[in-house]
Amino acid sequence: MDQKIIRIKDIALKAKVSPGTVDRVIHNRGKVAEKVRIRIQKIIDESNYEPNLMARALGSKKQYRFAALIPDHQVDSYWLAPKTGIEKAAAELKQFGVSVQQFIFNPYDAKDFVRKAEELTAARPEGIFLSPIFYHEVLPFLAQWHDSSVPFVLFNTEISDHGPLSYIGQDSYQSGKLAGKLMHYGQSEPCSILIAHIDEKIDNAAHLLKKEEGLRDYFSQQQDVFGITTIELDSSDPEGFNSRLADAVNGIADLRHIFVTTSKAHLVAAELERRQLGDIRIIGYDLVPANLHYLEKGSIGFLINQNPERQGYLGIRQLADFLVFRKAVSKTKFLPLDIITLENLRYYLEEDVMNVAEKLA
Amino acid sequence: MDQKIIRIKDIALKAKVSPGTVDRVIHNRGKVAEKVRIRIQKIIDESNYEPNLMARALGSKKQYRFAALIPDHQVDSYWLAPKTGIEKAAAELKQFGVSVQQFIFNPYDAKDFVRKAEELTAARPEGIFLSPIFYHEVLPFLAQWHDSSVPFVLFNTEISDHGPLSYIGQDSYQSGKLAGKLMHYGQSEPCSILIAHIDEKIDNAAHLLKKEEGLRDYFSQQQDVFGITTIELDSSDPEGFNSRLADAVNGIADLRHIFVTTSKAHLVAAELERRQLGDIRIIGYDLVPANLHYLEKGSIGFLINQNPERQGYLGIRQLADFLVFRKAVSKTKFLPLDIITLENLRYYLEEDVMNVAEKLA
DNA sequence: AATAAAAGTGTGTGCGTACACACTTTTATA
DNA sequence: TATAAAAGTGTGTACGCACACACTTTTATT
């Protein structure tokens, strides 16, 4: 059953060397005769030795400074959840010598993003976690961090091929497909569908396009033909927002569903309610309070949850796994696409149970 | 920012005693003058001292033996997931001196359950984790464990008021409601609905009734009137199974949805497929392979996931939190009711990231 | 008042690892 | 071949805590 645990001392005994030498092999500290190194390594492998992380953490006073670059949740409440996740992970990892410094930027201000990214870089953290929502602006930083070998983890918005340690987030394309499925399930005959991108500049937000693509692909695979229209809306101009939305709603024949690709479905719900257009169903993203309000009222049918808190948590964990626990980490981590409706909402609002020592496994 | 970490030694210094005395206060080992005890306790509280769990685990060679009483997954593949979760938790907790012994019983054999429960009791574990699927048979054991102060955690099937440390599982009633919502969403006009309880003795399985109740309540709150019928089926008698199902399907006018309250939706799907009744939609439970097969074919529309692996994981964790880490634990832990459909399935099949050190927080 | 028992307190070692340092052996250089 | 440098190896201490044990002071008993 439970074979006894192997320690460095045991390995040293078997290899007829001192624990110090085994330690050098384990940590590649050099200064070990090749012959001996091989002998020890072999014993390590065969005994499937697993270091005692408790003892390791105790004995090492190394400090790790991580930095997180995230949007201000006071500007957009969506970002509160990742922040919470980051802080949770930070609390857990504190005893392992990890500290996380947050750099908060205004999600509507690219210059602010650049400024904070510069501050972050100047702080010379050992690991970086960020949501690269400004595509063009972030690229030089990624290159710089990559050159100076500072690992960084991206979340929320995927950017390929710039050397991130990993990406944490949802599969946007597939989430669009999922939205399609939900609409289709509730729709016996063909109809028209509206896709609304709200408050994001499309050219800087590839993930919104992927959602759209997923939805369109879903319906193109169906036998029936659905009419699909796309609009972009900007809530900073309420009049324009409402009139453009009204134009779309009035102009599209047999419009039955609206797919909002951002966390702003509540804006659409509010306007439809005002116009008493209750028979148009809405599917949106994210459990922000305003959305929940309309979920409860029934005007939003489903929300797709992107697990934002978990994204924050896992991102920091990913850095720690790599730097502190020296585990291999996965390049991408797609979180489940949770389907949320009134009946199962409450169980997603309770904080999830999460924790540190999977590396013990 | 990061105030320095308080150690026992620091407290001892402040209280002008030795670390040993502080240790006695922390662990109630007695032998401390009341005056001194109060002085030390005050300093502990004020300094919000948090013990270093790494050092604690290192320094203590205490061993904890847990026992898990679960059905045989070779008889019903549903039970593989909790077993996996248990083993994951066990692997993580190994370094904290925890071992978990499994007692496997045949889920269709109450006598076997009793036998294994007796074996378990005889092994005198320090904590017990079980799925009490045989209501009548389990009660005496619960009483016995309660009397001898052995904490036990129930999962999958809720039994109130017999002194469990906690219950881990889904909210059956609410999951029935959720099934109702999903059916209703895909149903523009009133129709008939069939509820099928498969392979469970109803009198011993209150959770199935709760699911039924939830579904019925959902529809009774709607304006339209839906006809709802219930049947019980037993797959060990395939002929009877098929004929009874056929009778129901033929006998109910305008039957459009079947709600299978167990993990056996695939049996219904198979039979409907054989009879080419593709327009009846099925909602069932659990991501067992046979169900996934029909989910992919489209004959099952949605599966509600009860997070069985997580149930196993959290159950063992709950015991550890209570016994090893001496944390307060919640009486009930309802897991999210995940809605699974073809488009988001894959993200629930990937193993979840879980881990040990939330207690560090 | 002498002595035993009990209550209270301090000291020291070990848990498994990291890491600095001292020491020994081999190799390179003159 | 002497000697310095480099390579290789062993020893010891610290990390924060648990816990056994030794020791000191107080209280109870005769």
UniProtKB/TrEMBL annotation, chains A, B:
Residues of the HTH lacI-type domain: 6-60
Keywords: DNA-binding, Transcription, Transcription regulation
Keyword DNA-binding assigned: yes
One Pfam family hit: LacI
InterPro entries for this protein: HTH_LacI (IPR000843), Lambda_DNA-bd_dom_sf (IPR010982), Peripla_BP_I (IPR028082), SBP_2_dom (IPR025997)
Entry GO MF terms: DNA-binding transcription factor activity; transcription cis-regulatory region binding
SUPFAM superfamilies: lambda repressor-like DNA-binding domains, Periplasmic binding protein-like I
Organism superkingdom: Bacteria
Entries under SMART domains matching the protein: HTH_LACI
Protein name as catalogued: LacI family transcriptional regulator
Origin species: Dyadobacter jiangsuensis
